[in-house]
Structures are given as structure tokens and as C-alpha cells.
Design brief:
Layout lengths: L3 H30 L3 H4 L1 H20 L5 H21 L3 H28 L6 H30 L1 H22 L10 H9 L2 H21 L2 H9 L6 H25 L1 H22 L3 H17 L1 H12 L3 H28 L6 H24 L51
Helix pairs in contact: 1-3, 1-5, 1-6, 1-7, 3-5, 3-15, 4-5, 4-7, 5-6, 5-15, 6-7, 6-11, 6-14, 8-15, 9-12, 9-14, 9-15, 9-16, 11-12, 11-13, 11-14, 12-13, 12-14, 12-16, 14-15, 15-16
């Protein structure tokens, strides 16, 4: 794998850390700024709102920029947002800082996924995308616990200063390791929007919303479940969350090769497994050992869905995949918010702390149903062997520093290609 993927993973590590660390710092922020914990919870929502707004907006605004420059610019906005959060004197300005920090999230992962796929040869694109997402999963194992501990010891502002420093490191890594990348085809915003409105793209985004909402219907209340039902002490919760992060990492490692081999079967299998594991958690939550194993499995099968979902949307958008890939990140954040909301409804209805896993299982099953419907409707679709189309120019050559496609010979004096050929459903194995 090219070293450029390491730069993308470092950026993903910083983004993952700032996205999830706020959940552990809410009491400290609330106490310092003189507000309640529930009110401080709006800081989580502000970041998610930034992702939903920023993914399509910043992707459209940067559509004509060279890819490396755009990724560096997005990380600059991320860094400024975290610095503003660290220095915010009031709760309102902290809300604004969190919103600003969330704006580049979706656009970065959307553009980054397309770039990662361009850096490797055909048949390894999903593995490249999964490698970028590894930074996000490792953030949940190392970054979030370490940043939470730092915030508890030195104050929550220190956490966001460190995250801003990670943003600077990521910017330097992108400049140093990522080869110069052209802006790609001049698809135009209209073409991107038409691709986004394609029925199969919308079904892919809907699969993301329903399927991944099942994970957050449980994750949002995991700490309370572990203390109220399983019987763990509050001090053990960071360990439980770290186990969830380990599961996420295992899922990401498996997702790349499986998606490269068979995209839709990997998606169907991961969503079905997610529904089954969440159902099992309703029962295993009462047993400490079984509960911990199930937490790892939820993280693994939950994150196993992310790479095929991302690649599927990129495939269905075909000639204009960047906006669709970024919008899929908005869909993930809608899933986060929606899953937490539906799980909260079950708790408010008095169904008990083990109700969210059953709610999550239903959501995952709905995601599977949408995915199967989309697969049925997509049968017979033409040109199913491409996820991201190559530029129409016949004399295109690979991006400098990228792994060449098997058997490919660059043409002398050719302009860089807009993107590699990527298998739609992976190789048949």
C-alpha cells in the first residue's frame, strides 16, 4: 500500500478523535461553562450538523481544486475549528467551534475515499479505502481514551489543542506523502447532483441511514447498559469502549479484502450479522463475559458495513462519485443521530436498558431489506464492472506515485487520469 494512505489515516485519526471525545468530556465542559450535561450534549449534535451541512457544500465548492490541495484545505478548516473550540470563552462560541470542526468531516472522507481508490491498482480499491478508515477506528482505541484522560487531568481545552496539533501533523503528512493529484473530470455541480439523485445512489444512502443506525441505537447507550444491566463499575466503561474500538478495527481490516472480492455479498452478510448480534446482545448484556464478547462483535460487524456502503455509493454515482461519497458521510451521521433518537424513544417508553439492541436489530434488518431491494433492481444494469469511471481521454496515464493497474502501460505525454477503473461488485471468487 502507498505511504500516501498513511497520511489519509492520520487525518482520519484526528477526525475520529474529535468526533467521539466530546461524549466523555460533557461533564467537564458543562461544569466549566456553567451549563447542564443535557445542554452540553448539543455539542455532539453541533458537530453532526456540521458534517451533514459541510459534506455536500464543501465538496461542491472544492470540485475544481486539485485533490491534494483540497484535502489539505479541509484539514486546515478542521484544525481551525478545534483551535476555536479550545479557545471558546462561552458555550455559544464552543457550539460554533464544534460546528466548524464538523464541516470538513464528510467532504474529507468523501474526497479521501476517491483519492485512496486512485492510489492502488485494480482489485485493491476497497482495501485502500478501508486503510484510510482504520485511522478512524484506531482513534476509538487510543485517541478517544487518551484525549478523554488528558481532558480530565488538564482541562477539556487541552484536548482540543492536542487535536488541533494532530490536524497540523495530518496537513504536513498530506503535503509530504500525497502525490500531486488533478481535480479530475470537469463533471460540474449539475452532473454531480444528477448522479446523487440516481435511484441506486439514493437507495445506497438509505441503506447507510438504516443499517448504521442500528449500531448507534446501542453505542449511544452502551455505557449505561454496562453499568445498569451488566454490572460493571463506571471506571470500567473506558475499557468497554476500547473493546468496541478493537472490534471496529477488526471489521475495517476484514472489510477491504471482502469488499474487493464481492461487494454486495459482503454488504448483505454484514447487515444480516449485525441484526443477529444486536438481537443476541439483548440477552448477553446480563452476563459480563458474554457481554464483552458481544460488544467486540457489534463493533466488528457494524464497521464491516462501512467500506461496502462507501464503495457501493461510489459505484452507483459512476462518472461523478465525489459528491455521492461525501454525502454518504452525511448519511452516516444521520444514522448516528437517528439511531440514538430511536433508541432513546425505546428507553423513554419504559422498555428497559436492553431495548436499544432490539431496536438496533430492527434498523439493521431494514437496512438489509433496502440493500437487497437495491440489488434486485440493479440486476441487468450495464457497465457493472466500474465503480469510478476513467476519464474519457484515451491517452490518460496513472497518477504519479500510484500503483499501476495490472498490465497498464502509460502513454507518453498523457494527462493524468481522472480516476482508476474500480470493480463494481468486487471480483467473483
Amino acid at each position: 500500500m502507498p505511504l500516501a494512505l498513511l497520511a489519509l489515516a492520520v487525518a482520519a485519526f484526528g477526525i475520529g478523535t474529535t468526533e467521539f471525545v466530546m461524549m466523555g468530556l460533557l461533564p467537564d465542559v458543562a461544569d466549566d461553562l456553567g451549563t447542564s450535561v443535557p445542554t452540553a450534549g448539543y455539542l455532539v449534535s453541533a458537530y453532526a450538523l456540521g458534517v451533514v451541512i459541510g459534506a455536500p457544500l464543501l465538496t461542491a465548492l472544492g470540485s475544481r481544486m486539485p485533490r491534494r490541495r483540497m484535502l489539505v484545505a479541509l484539514m486546515a478548516v478542521f484544525t481551525v475549528g478545534n483551535l476555536a473550540s479550545a479557545l471558546a470563552p462561552t458555550f455559544g462560541l464552543l457550539i460554533a467551534g464544534r460546528l466548524l470542526a464538523g464541516l470538513p468531516h464528510g467532504a474529507f472522507f468523501g474526497v479521501g475515499a476517491v483519492v485512496a481508490a486512485r492510489l492502488v491498482r485494480e482489485g485493491r480499491q476497497a482495501r485502500a479505502v478501508a486503510t484510510m478508515f482504520l485511522g478512524l477506528t484506531i482513534a476509538n482505541i487510543i485517541g478517544v481514551p487518551a484525549a478523554t484522560l488528558l481532558g480530565q487531568q488538564l482541562g477539556w481545552r487541552a484536548t482540543f489543542l492536542v487535536v488541533a496539533a494532530i490536524g497540523l501533523v495530518a496537513m504536513a503528512a498530506l503535503v509530504r506523502l500525497l502525490p500531486p493529484l488533478p481535480a479530475g473530470e470537469r463533471t460540474g455541480l449539475g452532473r454531480e447532483l444528477r448522479a446523487l439523485g440516481h435511484r441506486q445512489v439514493l437507495l445506497g444512502l438509505l441503506t447507510t441511514v438504516f443499517g448504521f443506525a442500528g449500531v448507534f441505537a446501542v453505542y449511544s447507550y452502551l455505557a449505561s447498559m454496562m453499568t445498569e444491566v451488566t454490572g460493571f463499575a463506571a471506571g470500567s466503561v473506558p475499557l468497554v469502549l476500547a473493546l468496541f474500538g478493537i472490534g471496529m478495527t477488526l471489521g475495517a481490516l476484514a472489510a477491504g479484502p471482502l469488499t474487493d472480492r464481492a461487494l454486495r455479498p459482503t454488504l448483505y452478510g454484514s447487515l444480516a450479522a449485525l441484526a443477529l448480534v444486536l438481537t443476541a446482545f439483548h440477552f448477553t448484556a446480563h452476563m459480563k463475559g458474554a457481554a464483552l464478547v458481544t460488544v467486540v462483535l457489534i463493533g466488528a460487524v457494524g464497521f464491516l458495513t462501512t467500506t461496502p456502503l462507501q464503495m457501493l455509493v461510489m459505484h452507483q454515482a459512476r462518472q461523478a462519485p465525489t459528491l455521492a461519497a461525501a454525502s454518504n458521510q452525511s448519511a452516516f451521521n444521520l444514522a448516528n443521530a437517528g439511531g440514538a433518537w430511536v433508541g432513546g424513544l425505546a428507553l423513554s417508553a419504559g422498555w428497559g436498558w436492553t431495548a436499544p439492541p432490539l431496536v438496533g436489530a430492527v434498523l439493521a434488518a431494514l437496512g438489509l431489506a433496502v440493500a437487497v431491494l437495491a440489488g434486485f433492481l440493479d440486476r441487468g444494469a450495464h457497465d457493472a464492472s466500474r465503480i469510478v469511471a476513467r476519464s474519457a481521454a484515451p491517452d490518460a496515464e496513472p497518477v504519479a506515485g500510484a500503483e499501476p493497474a495490472a498490465g497498464a502501460e502509460p502513454a507518453a505525454g498523457a494527462e493524468p487520469a481522472a480516476g482508476p477503473e474500480l470493480p463494481a461488485g468486487g471480483r467473483r471468487g
